[in-house]
Amino acid sequence: MKYPENILEVSSLNPDYMGFIFYPKSPRFFNNPDIAVLEAIPNNIQKVGVFVNDSPENILTHIHRYRLDAIQLHGAENAPLCRLLKEEADILIIKAFPIMNVDNLKVTKGYEDIVDLFLFDTKTDIYGGSGEKFDWDILLAYRGEKKFLLSGGIGPNDVKAIRRLQHPQMLGVDLNSRFELKPGLKNVEKLNIFMEQLSQPFNPNTEEDING
Predict the structure, then answer these.
(1) Which of 97, 130, 192, 204 is the most exposed place for a label (fewest CB within 10 A)?
(2) How far is it, in rounded angstroms, from Cα 85 to Cα 89?
């Protein structure tokens, strides 16, 4: 999220998390010094600061300045750094992992006892917002105990495919570029429809074909 009015519109949909990217090279870089818009977000929505290979000092400064509820580490942050942030801030930590093949899942083992949640995103040459999917069948090889969020190119037409995944450790999905009018500006109507469809009870005996 980036634009104040759009932030408030999306918050009316009551997502579980709202992300704010503090990575200057991102077109979604949140550089609004006025924190009033974040303070207006309902308490039941967790404000997530997204960082990429940032210093612990800068991350901690942003946690306190913007009163973040969680942080998402989207770069090559190692386990000791994650542990340090956990000890210093006592905050929910989401660690993102770029996925291209089954071997990429092995890296998660070193973080299981440190971070709170994993995020599996498509491996690309850029950090986030690529609009590209990875092969979700790779997730069948994930046997970790840590819950994860699915990310990477998820769009309005992916509801049925997501509902059919039924992975016991999948907590939710991360929605970004495919729901944007421009970087950081979300299409509220598309988000609303998607969230309503995804929340419907799943019945494998009656569910339509995933491409239907």
Answers:
(1) 204
(2) 6
Are the CB atoms for 145 and 139 separated by under 8 Å?
Answer: no
- Are 174 and 15 in contact, with CB atoms under 8 Å apart? no
pTM: 0.92
Query: What is the mean predicted confidence (pLDDT) over 185-193?
Result: 98
Which residue in 107, 84, 91, 14 sits closest to 48, CA to CA?
91
Amino acid symbol at 1: M
- 154 close to 165: Cβ distance less than 8 angstroms: no
Per-residue DSSP letter, 2: -
Q: How many other CB atoms sit within 10 Å of the CB of residue 194?
A: 23
Of the listed ranges 25-34, 88-97, 99-108, 125-134, the one predicted with least confidence: 125-134
Q: For residue 170, what are the CA distances in angstroms to 120, 163, 200?
A: 10, 11, 16
Whose structure tokens read 């429809």?
A: 193
Could you give the C-alpha distances from 206 to 157, 197, 201, 202, 210, in angstroms and in order? 18, 15, 11, 8, 12
